[in-house]
Every structure is written in structure tokens, then in C-alpha cells.
């Protein structure tokens, strides 16, 4: 069973690529087969975080049909068990994917033969990003402790929910239920309203939506954490979200701010290798332990359901 973790968040520059790469390295060092997929089409730089100055092949070869299997463009990194599927050579036209191309990528990702598949997403809430985020039942939302970033995270959750609703309804139904929400509704108000509206129009679809949202799990990480920030911020956000949203929220932990992250990028070295003794590195290893625990629980559950 593969674990697919899209790593997203409304804002750019909050550390999605840094976190994806370093979690990937740590998971691979535990003996897992791991692939990092750079889905920041148009802004791809994940390879740099794995210490690679360039990558010769990637998603573009899969889209132009030079290869038929996405695994063929998975390039090994200097870390054992860790590969990368890059999009650094994708042209600007590919950055604006057609719906069919996007679906083709998502289906291929879901079939990749790895234990962990980490998807590094671009900033913002465009449909590509949201659909990649929803390619799995568990997504990792990244935020920093700043109020603007928290605000963006809620906007991202709201956009994910709306996209999920759109996947269930046709265009006409979608329009009629979204008429009931206003731009000023916060994510919590919007969710409640929209589910009520769907259920009112079509109780079966309302039930389906509720079920899918309940089964969805947002994991989240607070990056660039500083001593001056409330140490319980993550737990507080988790509590509020679990109380008001249908989905489950699971706080994976804080990752401390460290100047040496910047330095490692400049020197083209993998942060977790060069600075394995730092607080930030230890934070990342705690998160990996939680992901491993989660995967084990998922595997036990799937064995149980087959018995
Ligand atoms: N924990 C951290 N401590 C210090 N700097 C960080 C940390 N995480 C990210 N950064 C800085 O933020 C920059 C942007 O990170 P990046 O992963 O490229 O963001 P995103 O992928 O979200 O756009 C990095 O170049 C790095 O300098
Ligand atoms: Mg990035």
C-alpha cells in the first residue's frame, strides 16, 4: 500500500518544497521506497532541495508520450531509496495543464510502486493544485505561525472543500448550491451552509458529500516556528478544526526556523544530512515517526478489512 501525501498550503515561500524533500530523505533512510513528485509546474525547484543542480528528465516526457509509464522518469537521488520525478523541464504551456493531462498524471501517481509518494505543490488555490491535493484521502497542509499564513490555510481548506463539492455535483447543481454562500463567509460557515444546501437539493448527494468529507484527513505542519510563538498553537488549531469541520485534522508538529536552512540551499546540500543535529532536524524526524505510525495503522486496517 502506498501512502500519498500531497503537501500544499495557500502561500508561496512557506517551505513546502523544503519540507517535502527533507521528509522524503528521512523516510527513505528508514528503508522506505520514496518518490518525490514536483507538481509545482512552472515553479519547480524540488530537485535543488535534494542537492541536485539539474534533472534531465521528468513529467514532460510522460505528457509528450516519450515514456508511457511515469516510473520511467523517476530519477534516483544521492539518497538510497529516494527518487524524484521532476517538472523542472516542463514548458510554460504544460504549466497550464488540460483537464485530461491532469487526470493522466493523477492516475499515474496513484499507481507508482513506492511506499511513500510525496507531492510538492505550487502556491495558491488553482484547480491543478486543488486536484493534486485531493488525489489522496490525506493531504498535508503547511503553514507558518503568522496570522496571514493561518488565514491562508483556512482559505485553502475552504477551496479544497469547494473543489470536493464540485467533484460530486454537476455544473448546474454546483452553481445553485454555491449561490447560497457569500465571499465573506469564513471556511467554517461556508462548509455548514454548503452541505445543508446540497442535502436539501439532493439528500443522497448530501449524504455522499458528508461521508467523503468525514473520511478526508487534513494533516498539518507549522513550519518556521519560533520561540516567541505560543507552543500550543498547533494543538489549538487542531482542536478548533476538529470541532467545526467535518474532516479530521491531525497536527503533525512544528518545524523550527533555522538560518541554516537557507545556508544548506546555497551550498546545494541536503539540510537534514548537513545539519542532522539541529532542533529543526529533530522536529522533522518526529513528524516522520508520526507518518510511519499512520502508515502502519493503515496497513493493519487494510489487513483487518480483508479478513
Ligand atoms: N524551517 C525553516 N527555517 C528557515 N528557513 C526556512 C524554513 N523553511 C523554509 N525556509 C526558507 O523559506 C524558503 C522557501 O522555502 P520553499 O520550500 O521553497 O517554499 P515553498 O515551496 O512553499 O514556496 C527557503 O528557501 C528557505 O530559505
Ligand atoms: Mg516550492
Task: Provide structural commentary.
By secondary structure, the protein is of the alpha/beta class. It has 14 helices and eight strands. The protein has helices at residues 16-29, 46-49, 59-63, 92-95, 99-110, 127-133, 147-168, 171-178, 187-201, 203-215, 233-244, 259-266, 271-274, 279-306, and strands at 3-8, 34-39, 75-76, 82-85, 116-121, 138-143, 217-225, 248-256. A hairpin with a 5-residue loop joins strand 3 (75-76) and strand 4 (82-85). Helix 7 runs parallel beside helix 9 (187-201) and helix 9 packs antiparallel against helix 10. The longest helix is centred in the C-terminal third of the chain and has 28 residues, at 279-306. The two termini are 16 Å apart. Bound molecules: adenosine-5'-diphosphate and magnesium ion. Residues 12-18, 123, 223-224, 255, 257-258, 261-262, 265, 280 line the site of adenosine-5'-diphosphate.
Amino acid at each position: 500500500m502506498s501512502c500519498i501525501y500531497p503537501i500544499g498550503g495557500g502561500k508561496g515561500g512557506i517551505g513546502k518544497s523544503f519540507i517535502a524533500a527533507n521528509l522524503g530523505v528521512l523516510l527513505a533512510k528508514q528503508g522506505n521506497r520514496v518518490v518525490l513528485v514536483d507538481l509545482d509546474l512552472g515553479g519547480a525547484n524540488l530537485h535543488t532541495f535534494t542537492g541536485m543542480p539539474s534533472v534531465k528528465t521528468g513529467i514532460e516526457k510522460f505528457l509528450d508520450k516519450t515514456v508511457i509509464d511515469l516510473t520511467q522518469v523517476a530519477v534516483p537521488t544521492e539518497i538510497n531509496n529516494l527518487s524524484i520525478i521532476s517538472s523542472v523541464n516542463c514548458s510554460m504551456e504544460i504549466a497550464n495543464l488540460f483537464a485530461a493531462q491532469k487526470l493522466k498524471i493523477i492516475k499515474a501517481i496513484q499507481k507508482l510502486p513506492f511506499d511513500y509518494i510525496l507531492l510538492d505543490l505550487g502556491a495558491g488555490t488553482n484547480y491543478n493544485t486543488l486536484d493534486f491535493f485531493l488525489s489522496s484521502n490525506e493531504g498535508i497542509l503547511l503553514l507558518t505561525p503568522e496570522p496571514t499564513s493561518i488565514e491562508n490555510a483556512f482559505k485553502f481548506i475552504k477551496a479544497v472543500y469547494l473543489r470536493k463539492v464540485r467533484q460530486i455535483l454537476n455544473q448546474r447543481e454546483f452553481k445553485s448550491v454555491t449561490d447560497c454562500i457569500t465571499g465573506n463567509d469564513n471556511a467554517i460557515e461556508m462548509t455548514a451552509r454548503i452541505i445543508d444546501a446540497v442535502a436539501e437539493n439532493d439528500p443522497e448527494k448530501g449524504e455522499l458529500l458528508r461521508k467523503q468529507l468525514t473520511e478526508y484527513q487534513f494533516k498539518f505542519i507549522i513550519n518556521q516556528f519560533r520561540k516567541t510563538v505560543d507552543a500550543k498553537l498547533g494543538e489549538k488549531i487542531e482542536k478548533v478544526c476538529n470541532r467545526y469541520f467535518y474532516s479530521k485534522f491531525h497536527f503533525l508538529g512544528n518545524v523550527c526556523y533555522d538560518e541554516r536552512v537557507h545556508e544548506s540551499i546555497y551550498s546545494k546540500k541536503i539540510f537534514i544530512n548537513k545539519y542532522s543535529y539541529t532542533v529543526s532536524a529533530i522536529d522533522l524526524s518526529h513528524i516522520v515517526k508520526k507518518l510511519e505510525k499512520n502508515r502502519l495503522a493503515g496497513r493493519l486496517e487494510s489487513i483487518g478489512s480483508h479478513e
